[in-house]
Amino acid sequence: FLRYLPYEDGSVKYVLTGDGAGTVFEIDENSGDIHATRRLDREEKALYTLSAKAVNKTSGQDLEKASEFIIKIHDINDNEPKFAKDTYMAGVSEMSNVGAFVIRVTATDADDEAYGNSAKLVYSILQGQPYFSVEPETGVIRTALPNMIRENREHYQVVIQAKDMAGQMGGLSGTTTVNITLLDVNNSPPRFPHSTYHLSTPESAGIGSPVGRIKAYDADVGENAEMWYSILDGDGQDMFNIITDSTSQEGVITVKKQLDYESKRLYSLRVQVTNTHIDRRFEQLGPFSDTAIVRITITDVDEPPVFSRALYIFEVDEDTPAGSSVAPLSRIHYRHSCFRYTIDRHTDLERLFNIDSNNGTISTLQGLDRETSKWHNISVLATELSTALQTRVPVFIKVRDVNDNAPEFAMYYETFVCENVKAGQLIQTISAVDTDEPLVGHKFVFSLSTINPNFTVFDNEDNTARILTRRGSFNRREMSSYLLPVVISDNDYPIQSSTSTLTVRVCACDSRGNVQTCSTEALLLSAGLSTGALVAILLCILILLMIVVLFAALRRQKKKEPLIISKEDVRDNVVSYNDEGGGEEDTQAFDIGTLRNPEVIDTNKLRRDIMPEMLFPFRRTSPIKDNTDVRDFINGRLHENDSDPTAPPYDSLATYAYEGNGSLAESLSSLESAATEGDQEFEYLSHWGPQFKKLADMYIGQESQRET
Question: PANTHER family, from UniProt (predicted)?
């Protein structure tokens, strides 16, 4: 498309350099023609700057300076308009007026705006009429219909076209899609789907427990659909409450007070629902609230009695006589039911109170003492007889104070007076205490029961008093101590008083009133006895005591009796040997004194060779005096010893020397006995058990020898 011809003799070669040389443009080295090697695009590069020169083919030398020239690409309408996005998202409030701005879409054209109308764009709407329109020059989309309602249609799709060549025939065009959503406004009031709702709940439902839910519907969304519920009126307004569930936008009816099937079984409420966010622009579409009737039925439940209070506090005077009424309990009474009141005795172990099982009146069983216990905490049970259901309530009984205790000294006072004291001198300050607690506080009065020649009491009128000497010059030799009765009275009603005795010791003091001594030894010394004399007297007393103790010990010693008594001895004897316990000669483990003298009851005899295992040993019964056969007597003693855990576990020597008072068997001794020794039968000894085996062998054996 370009020819460069400085020379035509054929000895010249043409060379092209610059933008696109060899790639976009080429030059014929012989003819100097310049032509494009590919399709040119102005939008890619609009100008190319090139240089051409002539060079000798043989020597390669430049024949002239290079010539520079510019190649400018002329624009043609070869690019269609393009939008920045293929799809746009936009929103506009419902109920908007005509011409309300929605969104602006713009397209661009790569063609040269300065060359013709290739880049002059015009916008038009291909889809979305008659709801929306677009401005041809700016691409602004606006509403075309008034009061579009979201609840009728929420989403719209609009197609916008941009065409170059000012919209003329033959121009190129491009399109984009705009998705338009109508935004919600609060133009729909809430409405209940039903005018009346029916709910039920048991009478045992706790306070705050839900009864049921009701829901109104609002065509709006988001915060425009938020509602709150309230109770306008009704006979159940005090018994129920309604709250709003913010998640589900439901009204939840809850129990406000304890229900009672026996008192009222049906309640009615008028409930209102209202939007929380009201748009004043659309108030004419209202009202933005609605009402409905809610009827609640109470169902019966077997339930325990209910007291009117969670706890009771009563007061009673401590001097109230037994049987006096403290206070009645009150509870909610249920029709067709019977109740019984009782006191939990685990809370009244001392059984101080009683309660009337019918009306719940609490009374005292004993007199109460506030100084022992100021409060009594008991539990009262109310039991329904038909169902055995119980309710427990704590009862706190305060014992009011009554002036029934007299004041007394606050402490033990050790009071002394000097021998050289002067009259009117203070020797002690005393105070008093009272276990009673009067409302106005304690006020004690101190006085002497009789006029005392030695001391006097001065009341300080602050619940203390001073003990003063009435005279001087006390003498310990004449009187070592004085007893001073002090009368203390209170000011409550009835007045209580007591007499407390103050012991005043007479002591020796120095000139400044400091006590030197008050002891008896000092008095003896002053009487003329020296310390050595006192020691000698005490030694003599000690020696005498030792002599008495030694003499008593000698008297207690007893001569041991031999285990086997000779046959010449006129007494009958029982001899046991082969002892498994303390030895054959151990006769000290069992006291036979009782058998010698049944008048003495063995009350606390324990084994003397071992430590007793029982704190209270088994008591032996005294033998029966009148008409007692010796066999029955011994059998009884045998049974007692077999069952006695403190009895010695071995055979013991027992001597029966007692003749018996009024016994039909008379004497057990062989002396003065009409029967001879041969007339005796000892077969029964073999039936007495292993304890009498040796005795049985001895006597039965002797009898056999005699018979032989």
Answer: CADHERIN-23 (PTHR24027), CADHERIN-6 (PTHR24027:SF322)
pLDDT of residue 7: 58
**pLDDT given at position 684:** 75
- Determine the residue type at 378: I
| Buried-state track 2-17, b at ≥16 Cβ within 10 A, e below 16 | eebeeeeeeebbbebe
Q: What's the DSSP call for residue 433?
A: E
Whether 276 contacts 288, CB under 8 Å: no
Tokens 């677009």 locate to: 134
Task: Identify the pLDDT of residue 619.
Answer: 47
Apex CA 429: angle with CA 424 and CA 431, to 5°? 140
Instruction: Evaluate whether 242 touches 229 at the Cβ level (below 8 Å).
Output: yes
pLDDT one-digit tens code per residue, 427-463: 899 999 988 887 778 889 999 988 889 999 999 989 8
Residue type, position 336, single letter:
H
- What is the model's pLDDT at position 192? 95
Q: What is the pLDDT of residue 343?
A: 93
Nearest to 500 by CA among 426, 440, 411: 411
User: Residue 223 to residues 186, 227, 243, 288: CA-CA distances in angstroms?
Assistant: 9, 9, 18, 14
Q: Which amino acid appears at position 548 of this protein?
A: V
Q: What is the pLDDT of residues 321-367, one digit of tens each?
A: 888 888 777 654 444 467 889 999 999 999 999 999 888 889 999 88
- Specify burial of residue 273 (Cβ count, 10 A radius: 0-12, 13-18, 19+): buried
Residue 118: name the closest of 103, 106, 108 by CA.
108
DSSP 287-334: --EEEEEEEEEEEP-----EESSS-EEEEEETTPPTT-EEEE--EE--
- CA–CA dist 667, 657 (Å, integer): 9
Between the CA of residue 591 and those of 347, 559, 597, 611, 647, what are the distances in Å? 52, 15, 11, 16, 11
The Cα 640–Cα 642 span in angstroms is 6
Structural Rg of the chain based on CA atoms: 65
pLDDT at 387: 80
For 116: left if phi > 0, alpha if psi spans -120 to 50, otherwise beta; the answer is left
Length of the chain: 708
| Closest C-alpha among 49, 42, 52 to residue 15 | 52
Euclidean distance between CA atoms 371 and 404, whole angstroms:
10
Query: What tokens does 621 get?
Result: 């019964």
Distant-in-sequence contacts of 237-246, Cβ < 8 A, 24+ apart? 237/269, 239/267, 240/211, 240/267, 240/269, 240/296, 242/269, 242/271, 245/213
Q: How many helices (H) and strands (E) does the chain have?
A: 5, 40
pLDDT of residue 242: 95
Q: Contact, 252 vs 242, CB < 8 A?
A: yes
Per-residue H/E/C for 192-222:
CCCCEEEEEEECCCCCCCEEEEECCECCCCH
Q: Is 271 exposed, middle or buried (0-12, 13-18, 19+ CB in 10 A)?
A: buried
Which of 140, 137, 156 lies closest to 148 in space, CA to CA? 156
Amino acid present at 482: Y
Output b/e per residue, 231-240; b: 16+ Cβ within 10 A: beebebeebb
Whole-prediction pTM value? 0.41
**Which parts of the chain sit beneath pLDDT 50?**
332-336, 524-527, 559-560, 563-572, 582-584, 594, 596, 598-605, 608-609, 613-620, 622-627, 665, 670-678, 708
Q: Residue 408 and residue 499: Cα distance in Å, rounded? A: 8
**Among candidates 471, 464, 457, which has minimal Cα distance to 417?**
471
Whole-number Å distance between alpha carbons of 112 and 115: 5
Q: Residue 50 and residue 32: Cα distance in Å, rounded?
A: 13
